Each structure stands twice: as structure tokens, then as C-alpha cells.
Sequence to fold (198 residues):
Amino acid sequence: MSLHDRLSKALLDSHSAQRAIHDERHFFDTQTRLTPAAVLIPVTDRAQPGVILTQRPSNMRSHPGQVAFPGGKIDPEDSDAEAAALREAEEELAIPPSQVNIIGVVDPYHSGSGFEITPVLAIVPPDMELRPNPGEVEDWFEVPLHHILDPGNLVEKSAMWQGRERQYYEIMWQDRRIWGVTAGIIKNLATRLDWSHD
Fold:
């Protein structure tokens, strides 16, 4: 079975099951208007698939130095979350939209910073020539899909944030620390796909 077929089947099968979804909605009032955003989860089509992640520049105003998926706010000209994710991936890493094979959207993630983030799961060719936009991306790397979807690599932690204790997830890959919203989206993806048995 191809990677596309495996991911599509896993995503389709999961929609019939009720699963606990993790996010940060408890950090804001239920009446708070969230800003729509989208991220691309680019899975490389190779024998041992990987996921492409970026590291934000350390001088950025928001979330400096953090690991993230390519993505951002959904602009008025974007037809939907998928279009926004494709646009952002092209702006940040020069991933051509024509080279992206979208599988589907995963559970929206409500961030404590006020965004409703729609993750878009997709397959991209392996070993593409990626060109990071220095204004948005300091570096990029690929982490094995099996590593980030392994529940044993998702460590729950807590810290004080804005006067309240915050629970979050963290994944270590070599010297990279994947945490916060990105790890939360990965946690939901792992729950949704139930990839551990593959």
C-alpha cells in the first residue's frame, strides 16, 4: 500500500471513532473570537517517511526560535485552509503547490495565543530543494514520521504561563526541541491516525 493510501485510510477510518483532542482552549474565554490559521504537515514520500519542520528566527516578535510547521494566518484571498497552508509553505520554504498531494485536514487546534489552526496533512516528494525565507525561517529539518507519532516520544510537561500552570507536550529529536502548539498538533495527529500499530 502506498504512503498516500495508508495515510488516507488512517485518516478516513479515524473519523468514525471518538478520540480525545488536545488543545489550549482552556486558556481563553469561550466567547473569544479566534483568528483562523492553517499549517501544512508535509510528509516526505520515501520508504521511511519524514515530516518537514521549520525553526523560526530568534529575532521574531512571536514564538522566536521555536519549531513549527509551515503556516500562518488565513488571508482573505485564500479560498480555504488548504489554500492558506499551500501559500505559506511556498512563501516559507519554496514548496511548489503543484508538488503537494493533500490527504486532508486534521482536527483544528485552538492555541492559547488566540488562533484556530487547521492542520493540513499532505505528501511531498523526498529531497526537494527547499529554500527557506530568511524573514520567516532560520532553518528546517526532517524528523521521521514514526518518531513523532510514537506516543512514547510525546512527553507531557508543565510550566507557569501568564500566572497559570500550563500543560504542554514536548518531543525531542536529536538536538531539536519540538513543543507547544506544534507538539500539540502532533499529539492530535498521532491520536487521530493511531499509527503506532504500523
